[in-house]
Structure formats: C-alpha cells, structure tokens
C-alpha cells in the first residue's frame, strides 16, 4: 500500500478515536473528596467506616467564626441579635442538620417530670448580659467552643448532611455569605472553616489552574519549538501529537469514571511537557537526514528505525516512573500514576503513527541554510565535549562535593503534613482555619472509640471514671480544648437534676446515684449531641473533640504519648479504646510515604538496569546510566532538606517522577551510542559522535521540560508549586549531569571493543 494512502487511513482511524475521546472528556468532572486521601486498604480505614456509620463523619461540619465590633466584646445586644438572626437563618437551610450557637445554647434543668432549657444568653435583655457572661465563663464546654477566651469572637457550628458534595455545599456557603452581608458583617468580620469550605476552594482553583497552566505551557513550549526548528511544522506537529495524547488520556480517565482532583489535574501539564520528548527526537533526526541529502521517504524510514528503539525504551522507563506511583495507598496518587503512565505510552504511539503520517503528507520542508560552524550546534557541543574531557578531574571533584553536601542536607528532610497542606500560609482560606486554631478549639477533629469490657456498660461508674481520666489527660497533655463523651452526658444530666448549678457538673459519687441519673438520660434523648456520643444500649461510644492543626510530626508525638498513657493508666478489664477519625487516617499516610517512594524508585532503577543489561550486556554500563540520574535526585533532596521543605503527600511523588523522566535522555543517548558503536572504530569516536548527534535533542527536550514544569510555580497550591520547582530543578541538574558526567563515565567504565559489539549485534533496528 502506498505510504500516502496508508497515511490517510491512519489519520482517519486516529480521528475516529479522538472523536470518542472528545465525547468522554465532555463528561469529565472536577472533584475534591477529602476521603480519597485516606490510606486505601488500611485496617484503620475499614474500622473508621464502621465507626462513622454509627456516629457520623467527624468532618461534616462548617465552623462560622464571628468577631465583635472593634473595641467591643461579644456581650453586647446588637451583636448578639445579629448572631441570633444568623443562627435561625442557618437552621432553616437545606442540608443543615443541627446548629450549635451561643444564642441557642441552654442550661437544662429538670423539675418534676419535665426539662426546662434555660438560655445562657439574653440578647433582648442587655441588663442581664453581664451576669450571662460570668456564668458562661464558669461553665465547662462553652469557652474555646462557642466563645473565645478574650470574649471578642463567637463560633456557630453547623452540622451538615453526610459527605455533602460541591454543588450543594457551594449553595449553602453562598446562602450563608449572603445572609452575613445582609446582617452587616464585613468579610473581615467572619471566618469559615470545614470540609465544605476546603472542597469549594480546591475545586474552583483546580479548574482555574488547569486552564492557566495549559495556556502557559502551550505558549512556552511553542516559543521553544520555534526557537529550535524555526518552521511552522516544527511547532505545529509536536503540539498536535501531544495534545492528542492528552485528549486520549483524559478520555480514558473519564470513561473509567475518574474525576479530576488535586493530583490528576497535573496530568495535562505533565503530559504536555513530557510528551514532547519523542516528537523532538524524531523531528531532529528527520531534519538531520534530510540535511544529509536523503529524500523524504528514506529520511523518515531511517528516523523511525533509529529513533524508534530509543524512544520506545524511554517511553517505557518514563511510564514505569508513573506506574510505580500505583504502589501508593492514596487513591489520587494511584490514579495519577496509572493514567499519566498510560498517556505517556499513548504519546509514543501517536509519535510513531500520527507524526510520520503528517510528515508523509506534507511537502518536503525547505531547510534553512546553517549558520557558520562557530555558532552551530555541532560547534557548541564540540567545544563543550572538549572542555569536559580536559577538565574531567574538576567535573568529578565538583560532583563529589555537591553529592556529599546534598546527602548531608537530605538527611534533614522530615515527613510532615497538615489538613490544609496544599494551601500557602498567606492564603485567606488557611488564615480562616488558623483563626479557629488560635481563638477557639481548632479545626482538627479528634476521635477515640470507647468500648466497655465484656459484661460492662459505658454507663458503669468505673468505666465513666476511666473515660474522665482519659479526658483530663487529653485536655492537659494533648491540647484537646473541647471534648465530649458519655461522661459529658452523665455530668450534664446530673447538673440538670440538681438545679443547673455549675458545681454540680461532675460524675456521681455512687452507683446508686448513677442509676438514678441513667434513668433520666432518656429525657435528653432528642438532643443530637447526646445521640452522637453513645449507642442506646451503652455498648459503644466515642470521645470526640477538636484541636489545633498541629501537623503530623507533632500529632505522631501526641498519639505516642496517648497510647502510652492508655496502656499504663486505663484498665482494659474496664475500658477498651482505639484512636480513629479522619485526621488520624490522614496522619497514617505519612507512615507509607517513605515506603511507597522507596518502592517506586526501586522498581524504576531495576527496570533501567534490566534495559541497560539487555542493550550492553555489561554491569559497568548500569553504573554509567544510574549515576548521572541518581545524582540530580540526591541534589534536589539536599535542596529540600536545606530549605526545610517537608516530605508530604504532594511532594512524595517528586523523586519517582523525576527519575523516570530524567532517565529518558540517558536512554536516548545510550541507544544512539549502541548504533554508533557499529559504525565507529573506537569508543572515543563513538561517544563523541553520539554527543554531537544527541546533544541538541537532550538540551532542547530538557529546556522544554524545565520550562513546562516551571509554569507550576504560579500555583496557589503549595504541593503543585513544589512539584514544579523540584522536578524542574531535578531535570536541570539532570541535563548538566548528562552532558558532563555521562560521557566521562562511559569512557571510564565501558571497555567493550566496537568490533565485539558488531559481532554481538550485526544489525540493530533493521
């Protein structure tokens, strides 16, 4: 079949597949699900799912902080009346199950057969507010929860429907903001926090940043392609191929029901820069063959033969770098690795189907007259090659010193994460969350499952005393500022039965008194905060609360101390406990980060070693290939340690991805060297010729990769920012190592004679 006819058929088939992809991409949705970042398959996750089915999710709430007017306390009638109006508005909103507010908080008192709920605040009676404030600051559970210690801010807590999605959540938040404006609260006077707030902000920014970064990447890569090839087809054809791969990858992702989240949002930008490599190597080689006088058909055949092998290997190693992320127990990272790896392979397929078809159908390009040798790529690369050879001791010494310093600083890296890790410290949303950490109990949920020993109930006095001891430890040593448990129920009911006095808020002295209190608990069964603390038969309960978002390092230390306290001070024959909750699950990810990274890097290295062994049948060459690609990884790890960048979910992927991408140019280089060894009489001449042939493509692809990743520094997500900076630095250091260390290591380690190579592989790629 003639090549032109075959090219038309190829375009038709690829166009059909692209149309299917467009259909699926049109149904792609953005999503930020906090629960997706739980460690999949972890026993603690299975336990928490059962736990939350009984007691509800610990993050289905919205905190609304309201600041009093400047120079005033919250105990002034106009302010409290506005708070009360907002509270009643919130109670009427759809998806709001329950509202806890300063103006609806009551002190229950049991008289006869009834319960009278006496309000703590009387907004319509200003004369009583002084006495109200005195009572409030003597009553446990109100300060740090509903009232700030300095009496200049209050919190309204909205319990929402379980796992509320973005559209409904955004509608609720919009309604609240509208009512706040109507009531005269300026934006600086109120603060919102909770899962719904984070969900809304993250998804909106994902959509905005995806458009911005793709636009920046297109502009940047287009400029670099024009600077390199100075022809319209040298710019358009790579863009068509890579955009096609992105379209196919996103289409496949949509067809599998995967949404765009914080990690998969990186796929288009990642592919746009990574997918350029093969097209640049192909076009560079094609233009070189045309420059040697070959016709279009022969130039293309030679290009495919010589570039296909190296491009296939590089696509394999790059995709493996992404596929190894599938070892992660975090679903967004797993999906990102899977679909980006597939997209890399799709880019390779399009590079050797769509690109050759387009080149066949286009007229033979008119090549530019090369500039003088002194300014040509060959001249520049030739001088650089000589400089490296002459100063080889300086190269090795410098590399050794940088490596030693990097290892030292890399050892300073710490694994640490917080609930809003991906937002910068100056972000308004993070500042709102910090407001609750500083002025109130905090935003980080705490959950401790409670189970009485067999034959006991949570309403046994001995069990309650053990729970109270645990509460006291948590408040004193753990910084848990607000806590509620079955003890809260018993103390509250006892207080209600004894006239509502603050001094009566304590556990009973005897089992007989406890039995009378338990019998009265049913009077409070309609209180949602009571129902959420213990199951009706008293066989299971929870100790729940909120605390500041201290970060995973501090949380791990606190949890270690808590577990030690529970082992030493809590009798398992009376009470059994288990730390659980959403924050605990997020912290557990840190335990897997290092392991997942090591697994991913190990798989990458093993695959590259196997490829090099298959190519050269030489263990020495594995050192030649691995060292120049590990050095940049270690250097960037040193940069992280020196700059205090913590290892967390978003930054844990950097090393695996960077190694998979960086080794790409090395694979291209050694595959070309393998071919050149068949033609040159000495290793030195083969290395020099390969250096001149591959150097331009290595530099151009690296510049495009670094430039593409550098666009991510404009992200408002810290994780995305660090991915861009650190992978960009890795690739920058990688190209330096490629052009300095790699040729020296080949000349130093590789001892095979070209004749022996020719005898092993008479024809390569033919």
From TrEMBL:
Domain of life per record: Bacteria
Query: According to its UniProt record, where is this protein mainly located?
Result: membrane
Q: Which UniProt keywords apply?
A: Cell membrane, Membrane, Transmembrane, Transmembrane helix
Domain SSD, which positions?
239-361
Give compartment(s): Cell membrane
Enumerate the transmembrane spans.
210-229, 236-260, 266-287, 308-330, 336-362, 394-413, 597-616, 623-647, 653-670, 691-715, 721-750
Gene Ontology CC entries for this record: plasma membrane
Q: How does it sit in the membrane?
A: Multi-pass membrane protein
Question: Which PANTHER family would you find in this protein's record?
Answer: MEMBRANE PROTEIN MJ1562-RELATED (PTHR33406), MEMBRANE PROTEIN YDFJ (PTHR33406:SF13)
Name of the protein: SSD domain-containing protein
